[in-house]
Amino acid sequence: MRRLLYLIPVLVFAGVGIGLALGLTRDPSILPSALIGKAVPEFDLPPVEGLDRPGLSSADLKGQVVLVNVFASWCIPCRAEHPLLMRLAESGVPIYGINYKDKPGQIGAWLGELGDPFRRIGADQSGRIAIDWGVYGVPETFVIDAKGRIRQKFVGPLMPQDIDQTLLPMLAKLNG
Amino acid sequence: MKHLVLSLLLLAALLAPGVRAATSPDEMLADPALEQRARALSKQLRCLVCQNQSIDDSNADLADDLRRLVRERLVAGDSDRQIIDFLTERYGDFVLLKPPVEPATWGLWFGPGALLLLGAGGIALHLRRRRRAEPVPLSAAEQARLEALLGASEAPDRS
């Protein structure tokens, strides 16, 4: 019995060690969003200058399940995820864009080259609205439910497994 | 001599205060008291891009935006608490370099102390038990062996 007492420090050490080791396997660049479950922030963004596309406000995001993608033409990972957004848009998922700190002249060419999945695009020149959304890097993609609440956030470029394993089941559930 | 002067100059440059701060002169506030508060707040806020730097230290674009935002809100009359709340609402507690003390972070704040106390308690208990243990009397065989040994050493030259 006394012998078992000596095992306590070993067990505590093993517990702490396992906890810390698990912590090391997480990607530290991905932060949980503080906004999940909350309503989208109130905002009203003007259209991108020179682009024939209406701007974006919080009122546009109510009534149906939508994606909001924060993107910029200078952002290389955005280019990487773009084909996936195109495919989602083609399958009927409504996608709205927040164009983050971009030069107005460049985004038209960028969308012309890669295709345009967005129904509306708001121009966030100052990056202030992105701060309201808790954005800390582009791209970020939000899932908004029909009541206008943020349900999920993807940081960094969307990956095919994000779409298959998380996004599509979630959209099906929210729409169902 | 020349080397010595040069080394001292370099050392002075290293020790000079404020060299590392990323705040550029054009974003500083005219009111020194407000600027002081802005700097103090910026030091507590994490740059979310470069994660282990405060926004006061970081040159990242977002850190720059957040420093300007902190200053704008200070000028608008917000308290330090309101500014911290504004940012934690958007970025969560992660934006604070010092995590708040709450049930979810008790392990973080008190865990190391608790482990230390546990260890110290264990050692104290062990030492007390050892001191209190009665010396066990020698068995008959041990007693005989002891006497034989003592007897041998008391008369070393008898041969």
Give a verbal description of the structure.
The complex is a heterodimer of chains A (176) and B (159). Chain A contains six helices and seven strands; from the N terminus they run H-H-E-E-E-H-E-H-E-H-E-E-H. Chain A is elongated, with a radius of gyration of 21 Å. The mean pLDDT of chain A is 92. Chain B is mostly helical. Chain B contains six helices and no strands. In chain B, helix 2 crosses helix 3. Chain B starts with a helix and ends in a 5-residue tail after the last helix.
List the helices and strands and how they pair.
The complex is a heterodimer of chains A (176) and B (159).
Chain A lengths: L1 H4 L1 H18 L19 E2 L10 E2 L8 E6 L4 H15 L4 E6 L3 H11 L6 E4 L3 H5 L7 E5 L5 E6 L4 H16 L1
Parallel strand pairs in A: 3-4, 4-5
Antiparallel strand pairs in A: 1-2, 3-6, 6-7
Chain B lengths: L1 H14 L16 H13 L16 H15 L4 H12 L14 H27 L7 H15 L5
Helix pairs in contact in B: 2-3
Highlighted features:
heterodimer, A: 176 residues, alpha/beta, 5-stranded mixed beta sheet, B: mainly alpha, 6 helices
Largest interface: A-B, 21 and 19 residues
With helices defined by DSSP (H or I, 4 residues minimum), what is the helix count of chain A?
A: 6
Tell how many strands the DSSP assignment of chain A holds.
7
Tell the overall outline of chain A.
Answer: elongated
Distance between the termini of chain A: 58 Å
What low-confidence regions of chain A span 5 or more consecutive residues with pLDDT below 50? none
**Largest sheet of chain B, if any?**
none
Tell me the radius of gyration of chain A.
Answer: 21 Å
Cα separation of the termini of chain B: 81 Å
**What is the N-to-C order of secondary-structure elements of chain A (H for helix, E for strand)?**
HHEEEHEHEHEEH
% residues in beta strands of chain A: 15-25%
Mean pLDDT of chain B: 86
Helix content of chain A: 25-40%
The dominant shape of chain B is elongated
Strand order of the largest sheet of chain A: 5-4-3-6-7
Largest sheet of chain A: 5 strands, mixed
